[in-house]
Design brief:
3-stranded antiparallel β-sheet; single chain; two-stranded antiparallel sheet; 2 helices
Length: 78
């Protein structure tokens, strides 16, 4: 429960679940492993790797970065 944050509007959210929901699953397309991540409504980034292990690792990293971005955006102003 420690990772649930309250927004400026009083809503309780889990940045980890929001970030995880913004990333697609990894799919094999030819010789590449692809996934995409939605940063905002207009910004969808697609990543492609030749190795499944690298794709899984980078997906975890990108979800972590997005989670930190969400945490910064929803903090209450002091």
């Amino acid at each position: 429960m420690a990772n649930i944050t309250e927004t400026k509007f009083g809503t309780l959210v889990s940045p980890n679940k929001i970030a995880s929901g913004s990333a697609s699953s990894i799919k094999k397309n030819g010789a590449f492993y692809n996934f995409s991540i939605r940063i905002s409504n207009d910004d969808i980034r697609e990543y492609s790797f030749t190795n499944l292990g690298r794709a899984e690792y980078m997906r975890r990293i990108m979800i972590g970065h997005l989670e930190e971005k969400i945490k910064k955006e929803i903090k209450k102003p002091k």
